[in-house]
């Protein structure tokens, strides 16, 4: 909903009576100024900052069409509504070509005029928001490294390490919490390496049943077991000349760890059901969200295999440790899901960004991505406000802050609750008060106290 009192309107017409009438009618809704000539209006424009101009076509000294041309030349963001006493299609077409938002015929209905002003302002804001989004997306592109987005110091350090390790064939172990983008890192290393034109094959070790590990990794010959109707190559052969990414390697059973270690040492495999060795030529990049050193201490992971796969260990920082990237990522996902859902979200309010920056993001980048998709797919506004964020983001933020108090927790909760209720009731304070079980006076007091807009 527009805050009409902030919309600055300049009404230009040489009819003094009309100026007085319009000023009386529209000042209830807008910050309105009037001018009785094009010359005085242009002077006002030099000193004032107007959102909307309403201008009569036929005026002495300077015509309305000339005013329109000069306004659009000096500030294209100002929306201009033209007025005329004649319903002349040709004039309307000419005005539109010069950039007029709309063309109204006198006498006009005040409500129709008010609605036209509001719509013109909505267009102005939308254009400004889109330009802002384009600027942000341009900045995002500048802060993107091999499809990884970030400009924080921790992620820049990762970029530097990726550049170094991509030049050789060292085995890399990517460590990081769930949702930090370990596979993206692996793909970035591959795409910058001499192997970039060869396959990048992913194996999710945690998703393969124990009895199928060997055939998945090494393939099998026709007739090797019941159901083996044809020969099938495994992941090592599929990745020949390229990179084999072993995700969730901590889940690999000990017996398969032994076989994997042998392959890495001997650089050859045997398909299940075959006695013929096949040379392998793959780079191994592994990933884990668990500390493998602890698994080694518990005899759940082989230390000799660890040293084979972790020639270069690379730890991705969690999202909470790279706050400078949250805004960039949020806008990136906003644009991504605008395209997917045919929406026009263009701005994330500062209050919402503040909540995002304070939240710990246990699901990391993946959680942020899912949040932005949920907002874009379900909400109809163009602006991401704090009121559309999950309540848990507010509660966890306050509880986790060392200097938090019970009073702050309550006020944050009230702010989120009231803002959400106002939205559901289209900002109708009477309906909102009834929904929340408050008197209207109490609601208004809380809105002012909590700074709800």
Low-pLDDT segments = none
| Number of self-contained structural domains | 3
Q: What is the 3D shape?
A: elongated
Q: Could you describe the largest sheet, including whether it forms a barrel?
A: 5 strands, parallel
Q: What Rg, in angstroms, do the CA atoms define?
A: 32 Å
Mean pLDDT across the residues is: 88
| CATH homologous superfamily grouping of the largest domain | P-loop containing nucleotide triphosphate hydrolases
Q: What class, by secondary structure content?
A: alpha/beta
CATH topology of the largest domain: Rossmann fold
Number of helices: 19
Please state how the strands of the largest beta sheet are arranged side by side: 2-1-3-4-5
CATH class of the largest domain: Alpha Beta
Percentage of residues assigned to helices: 40-55%
What CATH architecture label of the largest domain applies? 3-Layer(aba) Sandwich
What does this structure look like?
This protein has 3 domains: about 5-140, Rossmann fold, CATH 3.40.50; about 150-315, 3-Layer(aba) Sandwich (Rossmann fold); about 320-450, Orthogonal Bundle (Helicase, Ruva Protein, domain 3), CATH 1.10.8. It is about 50% helix and about 15% strand. It is built from 19 helices and 16 strands. Helix 18 crosses helix 19. It is elongated.
Task: Please outline what is shown here.
By secondary structure, this protein is α/β, with parallel strands linked by helices. It contains 19 helices and 16 strands.
Main attributes of the structure:
453 residues; Rossmann fold; Helicase, Ruva Protein, domain 3; five-stranded parallel β-sheet; 19 helices
């Amino acid at each position: 909903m527009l805050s009409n009192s902030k919309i600055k309107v300049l009404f230009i017409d040489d009819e003094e009576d009309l100026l007085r009438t319009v000023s009386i009618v529209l000042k209830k809704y807008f910050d309105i100024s009037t001018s009785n000539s094009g010359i005085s209006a242009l002077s006002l424009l030099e000193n004032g900052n107007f959102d909307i101009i309403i201008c009569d076509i036929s005026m002495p000294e300077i015509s309305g069409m000339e005013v329109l041309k000069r306004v659009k030349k000096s500030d294209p963001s100002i929306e201009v509504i033209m007025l005329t006493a004649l319903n002349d299609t040709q004039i309307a077409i000419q005005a539109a070509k010069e950039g007029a938002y709309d063309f109204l015929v006198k006498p006009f209905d005040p409500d129709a005029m008010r609605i036209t002003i509001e719509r013109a302002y909505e267009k102005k804001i939308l254009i400004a928001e889109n330009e802002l989004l384009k600027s942000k997306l341009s900045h995002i592109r500048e802060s993107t490294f091999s499809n990884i987005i970030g400009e924080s110091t921790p992620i820049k350090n990762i970029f530097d390490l990726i550049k170094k390790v991509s030049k050789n064939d060292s085995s890399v172990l990517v460590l990081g919490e769930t949702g930090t983008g370990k596979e993206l890192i692996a793909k970035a290393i591959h795409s910058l390496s001499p192997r970039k034109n060869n396959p990048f094959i992913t194996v999710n070790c945690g998703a393969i049943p124990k009895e199928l590990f060997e055939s998945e990794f090494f393939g099998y010959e026709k007739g090797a077991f019941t159901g083996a109707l044809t020969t099938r190559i495994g992941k090592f052969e599929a990745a020949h000349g390229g990179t084999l990414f072993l995700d969730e390697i901590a889940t690999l059973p000990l017996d398969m760890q032994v076989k994997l270690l042998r392959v890495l040492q001997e650089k050859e495999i045997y398909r299940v059901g075959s006695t013929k060795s096949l040379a392998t030529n793959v780079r191994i990049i592994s990933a884990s969200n668990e500390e493998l050193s602890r698994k080694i201490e518990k005899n759940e992971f082989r230390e000799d295999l660890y040293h084979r796969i972790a020639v270069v260990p690379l730890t991705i920082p969690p999202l909470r440790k790279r706050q400078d990237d949250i805004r960039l990522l949020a806008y990136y996902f906003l644009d991504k899901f605008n395209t997917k859902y045919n929406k026009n979200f263009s701005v994330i309010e500062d209050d919402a960004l503040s909540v995002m920056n304070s939240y710990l993001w246990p699901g990391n980048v993946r959680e942020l991505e899912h949040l932005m998709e949920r907002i874009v797919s379900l909400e109809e506004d163009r602006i991401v406000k704090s009121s559309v964020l999950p309540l848990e983001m507010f509660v966890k933020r306050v509880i986790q802050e060392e200097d938090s108090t019970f009073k702050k927790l309550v006020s944050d909760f009230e702010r989120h609750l009231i803002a959400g209720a106002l939205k559901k009731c289209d900002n109708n304070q009477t309906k909102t008060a009834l929904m929340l079980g408050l008197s209207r006076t109490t609601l208004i007091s809380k809105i002012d106290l909590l700074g709800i807009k």
